[in-house]
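Schema walkthrough. Field components (list of strings):
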Amino acid sequence: MVEPLLALHIPDGFLSGGVAAGAAVLAVVAVAIGLRVADRTLDEARVPLLGVVAAFVFAGGTSGHFLGAALAAVLLGPWLACLVLAVVVAVQALAFADGGITALGANVLNMGVLGALLAGALLAGAARAFTLRRETFLALVAVVSWLAVMAGAAATSVQLALSDTIALGVSLPAMLGVHALIGVGEAVITVAAVSAVLVSRPDLVAIGDAERWALVPAHPAAEGAPA
Amino acid sequence: VSRRSTRLLVVVGLALAVGLATAVSPFASPSPDGLERVAQDQGFVDRGAPHALQEGSPAPGYAVPGIADERLATGVAGFAGTLGVFALSYGLAVVLRRRRGDAPARGRGAAA
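Field assembly_structure (string):
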């Protein structure tokens, strides 16, 4: 059977009503903040980018186990990322029956919000604290992409434990073990995508002083001032 | 330059995504991993059940019903799904941007 049900999607029945509702509240808050941030800061260049990021995250999800939270955070900023990832996860649940309906909030939280906010906060913090060279930035992107997947896996385990579905001591090692490898794939794809954007449109990187990533290349002689 | 290269990035990015979802997803590994595998290993996979709302899903499990060839069914689902999320997110962004009115764009984007 070719039926790729994806890495972290929780179906209905795994979570208790209380846990599902609590997760849904957090997801709704994040999406609401995303809408507010979009209202205030969405610039013309990023309008089509929201669509492209959604398409790429969806395609990566059906082809492999790409979550895309870190990628979305890098290209859109963490709050717009929450918005786009919620769209993707909702379509996966409603159109493709991947991930539950009552579990939708938990899935948006685990596969979108947590990763996007974690990756966004870590990268923005690093960009404020240090003058990052391009390779350093990409290495950090790899690390936070991996961490975003692991955070989603850990949160899923916690929610399953709170729902009395499976003990945390059993599910956490299993989930982290499985996703440690999935996270490596996530890191590779995210770094490749961010590199491509840095080469073509460094201004679209939403975190830190983006133009610097391109202007401090590995080989300083290779790139001059932008034409 | 900025406007044209945005369009190029959008076209290339979307083409890549549609290509992946259409041509690569049918060959994705069918063996369960991630949460599904843990659920099977630990014996709670049977607790999961589709929601009533999902009875009418157009393509449950990323396979368009009525197409006998499984790979083709998945490829068509991937193609439609990718364009669908693109249109939804793009449309949402257009609406949000319009609501914001004609405020000048942030300076940062203009440099390239």
